[in-house]
Amino acid sequence: MRLHAPSRRELLLASGTLxxxxxxxxxxxxxxxxxxxxxxxxRGALDGLAAVAPVGDPDWLALRGxxxxxxxxxxxxxxxxxxxxxxxxxxxxxGMYQAGxxxxxxxxxTPYRERSHFDGQDLLESGLPKPAASETGWLNRALAGLQPGxxxxxxxxxxxxVGPVTPLVVRGPAPVLSWSPQRIQPASDDTVARxxxxxxxxxxxxxxxxxxxxxxxxxEQSGDMGMGPKPGGPGPAQARAYFAEAAGTAAKFLAQPDGxxxxxxALDGWDTHVNEGIASGRLSQLxxxxxxxxxxxxxxxxxxxxxxxxxxxTEFGRTAHINGTDGTDHGTATVALLxxxxxxxxxxIADWPGLKGADLYENRDLKPTTDLRAVLKGVLKxxxxxxxxxxxxxxxxxxxxxxxxxxxxx
Amino acid sequence: xxxxxxxxxxGFFAMGARGPEAAALALHRFGFGPAGDQITAIxxxxxxxxxxxxxxxxxxxxxxxSSAEAARAVADFxxxxxxxxxxxxxxxxxxxxxxxxxxxxxFAKTAITDAGPVPGKPPLPQQIIQSEAKARFxxxxxxxxxxxxxxxWFWSNHFCISADKIVAMAGAYEREAIRPxxxxxxxxxxxxxxxxxxxxxxxxxxxxMGADSIAGINRDKGLNENLARxxxxxxxxxxxxxxxxxxVTSFAKVLTGWTWINPDQPDRGGEFIYNKRLHEPGAxxxxxxxxxxxxxxxxxxxxxxLARHPATAQHIAQKLAAHFVADEPPPTLVVKLAKSFSDSDxxxxxxxxxxxxxxxxxxxxxxxxxxxxxWIAGALRLTGAQxxxxxxxxxxxxxxLGAPLWRPxxxxxYPDTEAAWIDGVPRRIDIANQFAGRLRDADPLALLDSGLxxxxxxxxxxxxxxxETRNQAVALLVMSPEFLRR
Lengths: 410, 486
What we know:
The complex is a heterodimer. By secondary structure, chain A is of the alpha/beta class. Helix content of chain A is 33%, strand content 13%. Chain A is globular. By secondary structure, chain B is mainly α. In chain B, a hairpin with a 2-residue loop joins strand 3 and strand 4. Chain B is 55% helix and 2% strand. In chain B, the strands form 2 sheets. A two-stranded antiparallel sheet of chain B has the order 1-2. In chain B, strands 3-4 form a two-stranded antiparallel ribbon. At the A-B interface, helix 1, helix 5, helix 7 and helix 8 of A face helix 4, helix 6, helix 19, helix 21 and helix 23 of B.
C-alpha cells in the first residue's frame, strides 16, 4: 500500500514554520564589528505627518485643523526638536531618539510617483526605479553582493524573513531562512470593515450577518462576558500581538552569534482612508503596536542592539489634507525611520518642503525632497560595507545619481 | 437574443445563452468557478461546454489504497498501538517492582520509544484521509470545468457516510462507490452504494441478521433497520412518500446477509460479503410487491425497483435542482428533471444534460450561497493555491466552517441551503485572509477579471482595486457576494 507522501515543503508549511535552521558558518567580524540589519516594510502607506508632525511649520494647524498634533492639544506629541514632534503613541521610539538611537527622515519617498498600493509596494521592495515585475528584492541583492572578508561574509549567509510568504524585499540569490507564527492570523478589522461596506452596497443579507457578528465580537471583547476588558478592542490587540511577535522573533534570530545578520518583515494596516484616529483611534493604536514591536526588537537584541540598524519604510505617504471622512488618501512623501544602537541618532533629517498649497506635490501631497534610496544606500554602505557600484547598479539599479547619505551610522 | 436580455417574466436566459456573463454563471453554478481564462474560452457556447464536460469520467486515478486495504492497514495500526501500550504498561510495572528499568527487553524499550507520534507525520488514519482529501481537492481545483466533480460531490453528500465512524474508508468509498456511476445509471449507483462495506458499516447492516436466520437463531439476535430505512427515506423514495413501517421491516429482512469481512481478518478483511447464515429466509413484501428469497438477488431486485420508482425520480429531481439552482427551485425545472430521470431509466448523464439544457437553470439571479467546501475549492482553483497550501489547513478550514470533510452529523448529509451556511460567512473572512496570506505576487485585478468577469459589480471592482495589499485584495475578492453566491 502506498500513500501520498507529503512533500517536505508541505510538512514545513503544515507546521506553520519554514524552519530550516541549519548550522550557519561562523561569520566573519572584520573590524571587530558584527552588524545586524532589519528592514520593516509598513504596507498600506503610513501617514508621515501623523507619525512625525511638523509642529513648527506655520501652516501646520491650518492644514490639518483638529487632526493636527500640537503641544497644546488634548494628547500632546513628544518633542523631537524645535520643528518636529513624534506621535504620542510612540514612547519607546522617543526614548531611543533621546538616547541617540533613532533617526527620522522626513519628506522622503521612493522614486514611485503614482498612487497604487500594489505597484508602490513592489517598487519599494524590488528597489527598481519604475514599476516592473521583479523576482528579487534590494535587501537580498545587497547581501549577495557584499565582498567576502567584510563585516558580513555573503558566503553561506542567510537572510531572515517573517511570514508564510517571503516578502519580495528578501527574495533573491542569497538563501532565505523564514519563520512564521504558528497561530492563524485572523482577518484585520480593516478587512472586515471593507467587506461590510461592500455588502451594504450589494448584499443586505450578508451585511446583516456580518453586522451581527461584529456586535457579538464587541460584546465578547467588552467586560460583559466576564473575560475582563481588553484595551483597544479586538483588532488593535491582534495587531499589537502580531507586530511584537514578528519583530521580536526576528530580533531573537538576528541576535544569535551564528544567526542570520539581515532580515525583513512586513506589517500591514496603514491604509487609513476613514476615521484615521491620529491622536487616539486606529492609527494611534497601530503606531502604539509598532512602538511595542520596536521595544521588543531592542530588548531581544540584547548586546547586539549596539550593532543594530532597523529601517522602517512604507510605499508612499498620504494626502496632506484630511479628506471628507476624517482620513487621508494616497499621497507621496512620508517618513522613513531608522532605529538601532549602531546609529548616530537623535536627529530629524529633512529638507523641509513646506505645507503651503504651492509647496505641496500636485497641490495635495507632502513633496518628496529626499530619495529613500539615499537613506537605504547610506545604511547599507556604512553599516554593512556594501560597495558603491553594487549599490548603484544591482541593489538599486539606475540610482547612480542618488548618492548614499553619509553619517547615519556611528 | 443577447445575454442579459431576459424575454421571460422569470428572467431566464434564452435557450442558447452565450457570452461571457453566461459563461461566468455556468462556471460558478455548475463548476467550482473559473480557473485561468475559462470565461473567455467557453463564452461561445457555455451550455455546450457543460454538456461536453459530461464526456469526461468521474473516476479518479490516484495511487491510493482500496477501502479494504485501508481498513486492514488501520486495523493493524490500532492493534500495534494496543500492543505497544500494553508492553509499556508491563515494563512500567516491572520497573516499579525492581526499582529500575533494566527489566525491559530491548524490544519493549524500542516499542516505548516508537510509541509516540512521529513529529510532522500524523497517525496512519489521518494520513489516509489527508491523502484522499488531497486527491479530491486536486481533482476539483484542476478539473477542466468541474461539472462532473460537482456531480461527484452532490452524490457523495446524497449517499454520505461518516469518517467519524469509519475513517479508513471515507475517501475510498467515494472513489469506489460514487465516482464510477455519477454519469451512469442511478440503479447501478444505488447497488454500488448499498453494497459497499463503508455504507453497510455506517448504517449498521453488518450487525443485522434475520431472527429466523441460522445466525439469528444461534445468537438470539435479529434485525437492524437502519440501512433499510435510510435507503427508503434518504437515498431513494424520500420521506413521507408512502412507504410504511412494514415496508421498512421487510426491506431490512431482505438486506440481511449484506455485510463485510471484519477488517481484523488479515486476508480479505474489509471486503463486502454476502453471508447466507445471516439472511432471513423466505419471501418479503416491499411496497406491495412480493420478492421471493433468492439470497442476495432478493436485495438487488428491491433496489432495482426502488431505483425506477416515480417517487425516487421526484426526490432526486428536487434535490438536484435545489443544489444547483435555488434553495426553492422552479417547479417546472423539477418536473423536467424527474421526467428525464424516468424517461431515460435513471440515466444520470441524461439528467445532468437536462439540468443544463433547461432554461430555468440559467436564472441570472444567483440565489445559492456556495457551501463551505465548494467555496474553498473555488478559491483554490481561482488562485492556483492548491499547489502551495497543504491539505491540513484546507481540511481545518472546512472544519472551521462547520463542514468537516466526510463527517456529516447525520445520514442526511450536509444541508444545502443558504440558511444553514450564511451565519458562518464571517468565519470565512479569516479563512480567506489565511489563504490569501500564503499567495505570492497575486494580481488581484487579473484574478477579478478571470474569476468573475462581467459578474463583478462596480462596487466589488472598486473594493478589490483599493485594497491595502495584494493579499487583502484577494481575500476581499473571494469574499465578494459574487464569489460567495452562484
